[in-house]
Amino acid sequence: MSALDELASGKYLSLTTFRRDGTPVATPVWLVRDGDALRVITQADSGKAKRLRNNERVLLAPCDARGSLKGNQVEGTATLEDPAETARTAQLIEARYGLLGRLLMWRSRRASRKPGAAGQVGIRVSVAG
To answer: 18 by DSSP, 3-state: which?
Structure first.
């Protein structure tokens, strides 16, 4: 099984991004496989989105909902998606996670309509190697 297959088979992914000073910050996220990449969604003003704007390098590992690693970390790169790609990522997350996924996406879109809200942004993750 390839690293991508192993990561995609889990319900949660530990996505580690890096602060400007190099400090790693791990976050458990939902994921969906799309071809040779993984997709994740987050709020556009989240810490991980801000960190990815400065450094595309990430570490990835399967994990549980609390972020406890369930496998080895692998290197990867992550890029923020444009609005059309983000909408596609939201649809894929909703499809994979069913009712809970639809509820999460609905709540997030609802919160995005508030004045000053940043909205959602998709993250496309490629596994190194």
So the answer is: strand
**What domains can you pick out in the chain, each with its CATH number?**
3-127 (2.30.110.10)
Q: What's the mean per-residue pLDDT of the chain?
A: 90
β-strand pairing of 12-18 with 57-63: antiparallel
Nearest to 50 by CA among 129, 117, 121, 128: 121
| Whether residue 38 has pLDDT greater than 80 | yes
The residue-averaged pLDDT of 48-55 equals 96
**Model confidence band, residue 41 (pLDDT cutoffs 50, 70, 90):** very high
Residue 12 tokens read as 């949660």
The alpha carbon dihedral of 39, 128, 55, 84 has a sign of negative
